[in-house]
Write a structure and sequence with these properties.
The N terminus is likely disordered. The longest helix has 11 residues. It is globular, with a radius of gyration of 20 Å. By secondary structure, the protein is an alpha+beta fold. Strand 3 and strand 4 form a beta hairpin. Helices cover 25% and strands 25% of the residues.
Length: 220
């Protein structure tokens, strides 16, 4: 599980693209079309890294939630939410982070996508304190809990049954950059009971959107 350096420049760019800029060719095309190239180049230079610096690593290590975007081999997308106790996302080093996959609904949509297309986009948002977000994009691999523990001494021991990892996702970081604070709502942290790993439908939200009720209704 040795760390490798990831180049910060795309392998192929459109004519006129600055050679030292991160991002993708289609981003430059869209920036040119809408006249935002100068603003985007300033953001690339000031805020985009190909690794997690010390401030980013500290930020990730205290988060309790994570949004994950994946797509399958055809580009069909899925976005999901992950949560856990502070530090549930493990910062391995400046080039890698990992999160546990707990027991869920059994659909395995995100893992299935990653199995065919390893690209993943992560978004961490602190809604209660700093009101800052962090984007982390990279390539992921799926590992068993045993493989993670064999490869990394820093994997914490888990005592809560519902927080026992079923698998781990290890992400090799390619891009990391800020999500600005100006539109992030401030939320208040309040106590709540969490029943990790439960199959109790009421505790999981039941048929909140009425899907099952609609299908079970007469005439449906």
């Amino acid at each position: 599980m040795a760390s490798t350096s990831i180049p910060s420049t795309p392998s192929s760019v459109t004519p006129g693209t600055p050679p030292d800029m991160p991002g993708a060719p289609h981003e430059y095309e869209m920036q040119q079309h809408y006249g935002t190239r100068a603003r985007a180049e300033r953001f690339y230079r000031d805020q985009v890294l190909d690794h997690l610096n010390a401030g980013m690593r500290e930020f990730v290590a205290r988060q309790e939630m994570l949004f994950v975007a994946t797509s399958d081999r055809l580009g069909e997308c899925d976005a999901t939410f992950r949560a856990g106790p502070p530090g549930f996302v493990l910062v391995v080093d400046e080039h890698r982070l990992a999160w546990p996959e707990y027991r869920g609904n059994g659909v395995m949509a995100s893992l299935a996508n990653l199995g065919k297309n390893p690209h993943a986009g992560l978004l961490f948002i602190d809604f209660t304190e700093s009101l800052i977000g962090l984007h982390v994009n990279g390539r992921a691999q799926i590992l068993t809990d045993e493989a993670m523990r064999d490869g990394l001494a820093s994997v914490p021991e888990v005592t809560v049954p519902g927080q026992l990892p079923q698998q781990w996702v290890l992400l090799n970081v390619e891009e990391a950059y800020i999500h600005c604070a100006k539109h992030i709502p401030r939320l208040r942290r309040v106590p709540r009971e969490r029943v990790w790993g439960t199959d109790d439908m009421r505790r999981k939200g039941g048929d909140f959107f009425g899907v099952k009720a609609g299908r079970d209704a007469p005439g449906q």
